[in-house]
Amino acid sequence: MGDIVYVVMILAMAAVVVVLAIGLGGFAGGGAFNAKHGNKMMRLRLLFQFIAVVLIVLYVYLRGQGGQ
């Protein structure tokens, strides 16, 4: 179970980085994309960060339990 959580945790962290990069790129470029999608990118990043933190805590908990 711990290995599955580890892989999903890594994917969630990668999703945070991707959404952050898209949001920063849109903010740096400004224009219509930022006006239309800037707030949505921020909310999506916060959601992905929350999911990643929950998975990290779950992984640490499972490691402390011996992976059972």
UniProtKB/TrEMBL annotation:
What PROSITE patterns has UniProt attached to this entry? HIG1 (PS51503)
Show where the HIG1 domain sits. 1-68
TM stretches of this protein: 6-32, 44-62
Q: Name one Pfam family in it.
A: HIG_1_N
Keyword tags: Membrane, Transmembrane, Transmembrane helix
Q: What is this protein called?
A: Twin transmembrane helix small protein
Organism the protein comes from = Falsiruegeria litorea
Classification lineage: Bacteria, Pseudomonadati, Pseudomonadota, Alphaproteobacteria, Rhodobacterales
